[in-house]
Amino acid sequence: MSYQVLARKWRPRNFQDMVGQEPILRMLANALDQKRIHHAYLFTGTRGVGKTTIARILSKCLNCESGVTSTPCGTCHACCAIDAGQFLDLYEVDAASRTKVEDTRELLDNVLYPPSEGRYKIYLIDEVHMLSNHSFNALLKTLEEPPEHVKFLLATTDPKRLPITILSRCLQFHLKRITPEHIAEHLQHICATEKIDSEKEALEKLAKAADGSLRDALSLLDQATAYGHGAVSKAEVYSMLGSMDEENLLPLLDALISQNGSQLFSAIAELTESAPDFQQLLEEFISLFHKIAIAQIVPETLTADAAFAPFVKRLSAEEVQLYYQIALLGRRDLPLASTPQQGFEMTMLRMLAFKPHANVKPDTLPAAAPAVVTKPAAPALEKKPETTSLSEWRDLLPKLELSGMAYALAANCTLDKITDQKIILALSIHHQPMLNPKLKDRIAEALSRHLKRPIQLEINATEAEILTPMKQEKTEQELRLTDAKQTILQHPQVKKLLEVYDATVEVALI
């Protein structure tokens, strides 16, 4: 007898055998038991979550010789024929290979005729989003008002590509990804039944690699069984998937924390000998930093992980967040690197080169290269003693709570003269196009509101060079950038990167 792959052998034959999707199964079972049967069902979701499986079980529910029920007998002619793919009234179509309108019309030619051997004619169209627009148009009328003996079961991984006219005529069920915990539990049950020696951690790794698809998990279990000569061990599964055990990543993490470049590359070289999948390595690093971040907030999660515990205390919360973000970006950019190994190494070097500064305010500079920023003296003003709150226009500007073009206009002005009831601003002639009565009134209102007295505002254009808040801010930003760049260039790890890779440093404000 030929071998039958696990994905086919363990395909559910009834709703009770399904893994996950409990809300959908409950709705379908209740509808069947109450005889509230819709004429068209649409099952959506990613690959391997049970769309066509549920559709076939629903076909048995509708055609079982014991009656319409949520628990088909599985032994009558209709149930056995549907399981064997030999039921004459079940038309199962792969829309990806039959996209033409002629195919759809040929399929629908027999809709009006009663079923040959069952209670209902079932049209199961898989990957229905692949049909052409003309095919959808041909299907539309029949789908809206089919004969009583016809039921449509549609399945798709991409419902967004379906016309709204099709969606509105179907009862839609979205199947979610199956959790790794549910998949791992099911794999353990299968291994026990099939008498396959397996390790729990190996099955958990397969469940995680399946990414929510039970069919993919069963295919991976088949591969792992063949790879391990009939057994599924942790070491063999990690080797087959090209990934690393968490313990293998700890030397890399130790080198990062110690800021030891030689130790880091020695650890990378040791990992490279086993020809790993560097995409998988970065994903393992992302999971590792996620685990550290949780352990720092909830320490009791470390009870069974003695080797991992010291690293939780050696890393600050800021470092964990930074490394996590660098690993995410490294995984995203890995396909752009010349080789996967080079992309992985550069990601590790970024982690080595950068370190968050604690308690640094956005407008301060690193202690290694302090910058002295001097504010130019404010222009001489004609003002009375009570207006000395107004001597620095730049300090007053944020308090006015202006926004948009009004703020831009005010930021490009300087204070010229002040009296009790009047304020005169100077505006460079280069920015004169910004000046209009509406914006001027908004600034005057803001001044009156802040000073709690009526203010008459006058804005005069001038050809003289004036120091505006906008210009002051730009000058200080340039100083901060220059000082920050100098500080980075003095870092020993950055110097090493510049020498090895002939790199340059670009600094930008965020």
Describe the structure.
The protein is an alpha/beta fold. Residues 358-388 have low confidence and may be disordered. Helix content is 49%, strand content 10%. The chain starts with 5 loop residues before the first helix and ends in a 9-residue tail after the last helix. The protein has a five-stranded parallel β-sheet, with helices on one face. Strands 8-9-10 form a three-stranded mixed β-sheet.
Helix fraction, binned, reads 40-55%
> Given the structure, what is the number of helices?
22
The total of beta strands comes to: 10
Distance between the termini: 66 Å
Strand content: 5-15%
Give the spatial strand order of the biggest sheet: 2-3-4-1-5
What class, by secondary structure content?
Answer: alpha/beta
Stretches where pLDDT is under 50 for at least 5 consecutive residues are: 358-388
Average the pLDDT over all residues and give the rounded result.
84
Q: What sort of overall outline do the alpha carbons produce when their principal axes are compared?
A: flat
- Using only CA atoms, what is the Rg? 35 Å
The major sheet is characterized as: 5 strands, parallel
Protein traits:
510 residues, 10 strands, five-stranded parallel beta sheet, alpha/beta, 10% strand
Structure in a nutshell:
The chain has 510 residues and is of the alpha/beta class.
